[in-house]
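User: Hey, my collaborator sent me this sequence without any context and asked if I could get a structure. I don't really work with proteins. Can you help?
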Amino acid sequence: MALEWEQVVVDSVDPVALGQWWAAALGWVVVDSSAEEFEIRPEPERLPGLLFGRSDGDKTVKNRLHLDFRPDDQDAEVARLVAHGARRVDIGQGDTPWVVLADPEGNEFCVLGRRRQ
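Assistant: No problem. I've predicted the 3D structure and written it out in structure-token form, which is a compact way to encode the shape of the chain:
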């Protein structure tokens, strides 16, 4: 039996707005768009993607799953994402080498530091 990782599904009050935010933040392309679902991928045929699906109600608790990103320059990437509308959040991470941010609907994600050699 073989499995292929298709996408990560993100519940969203406004799938189009949040999907567009992530598409711009990651430089990904839109592959499907409706009022109920909005899907982006790194390239049209490249998996996995992110699918934003409609969900009632605002997010109220810490994510049980989140995305980690490893940029070339952590400080520059954090500044770019914050300027794009992300915000810093404290989820109890303490003094760590990564930065926890939240997207416009409050979904946490991490911007990691440099990989150790």
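In plain terms: Helices lie at 15-26, 74-83. You can pass these tokens on to your collaborator as they are.
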